[in-house]
Amino acid sequence: xxxxxxxxxxxxxxxxxxxxxxxxxxxxxxxxxLFLEQLLEVLVGVSDTFMVSYAGEAAVSGVSLVNMFNTVxxxxxxxxxxxxxxxxxQYIGSRDSxxxxxxxxxxxxxxxxxxxxxxxFSLALKRQLLRLLFGEVEQDVMEACVTYLQISAYxxxxxxxxxxxxxxxxxxxxxxxxxxxxxAANGINIVGNAIGVFVLHAGVAGVAYPSLIARTFxxxxxxxxxFRRKDSADAGQRLWIRLEWKNIFHxxxxxxxxxxxxxxxxxxxxxxxxxxxxxxxxxxxxxxxxQIAANGVAQSFWSVAALMGTSMGLAFVTVIGQxxxxxxxxxxxxxxxxxxxxxxxxxxxxxxxxxxxxxxVLRGYALSEEAADLSWTLQRSWQCMxxxxxxxxxxxxxxxxxxxxx
Length: 406
Hints:
mainly alpha
């Protein structure tokens, strides 16, 4: 079995072992916590949709529509964190602790300012934005949208600051830390959702407030850890980067430009993709509450199905960033090909598992028979497409490697 995994994941053209910054064990220690962390983060939104289904399809519709809107900002925060992670990883690779600390501080500063602006914008124009995007929905759905957006917008700064802090820790390869934080936050969210929906009968607010509390908890914990000095428990060869107040309350134009130079193109690309999904949700809103609820539940499954690509993307940033920081472009190319192979293979297995589990999980939602059938139809078509893309991508990558010149 181990030999089979090696043959699937190892590129045709390798590099000497003494130039491998990350061993196979190091990659496993990096990737598995990353995947579990991303799964736990997505489960915050999935838990909201699942729990609120017991408050009625209007509540599910409101939560799912606003989650589409929130996802645009969340992806922008993630793009900003990814830009900072690339820069921090490169300084770790070159063992430049001064600029590594400065880039980390500037990342947190930019994230806080941008997310606070997004929060104020969303709160000030919440009804106008929702009418513009989903104006044709029924009144009870619109009220659920307003309630959920008003509460969830307060969590924007917490999401952005957590992403920034988590990016710093991931850049150092400390993915087990961010995984444990996500595990604790999920526990808070799930328990809070159960109390809000089944005990307090608070409906949409009953799932919105626990998410706000969980995200705020994550942000405070990661910030405390980022300010912590290295101790004996963190022994290792890689550079340790920590936050300092002087690097946060200080504007360094060159460093900000470098971070944004990576983050802005990434953010525009992801933002446009998410805006397309919002536009499609706006069209779905014209069909009625049942269709909105079915689409919202299907979107939850799609988010989980996309996890493998999302978590592997974060691994790319850490590994290739450190290789480039160390000045070894050949090692960066080797790891890019190796991680691509892992991504394609793991995506095929993960999406197959989701397809098998979806009918069983769907039974747990409190949906009408019509909404459940529509949701399963949407999930099935999407999973088939993802299967085809992953298999074609794997075959194409293998052909490229075997036909490319040495």
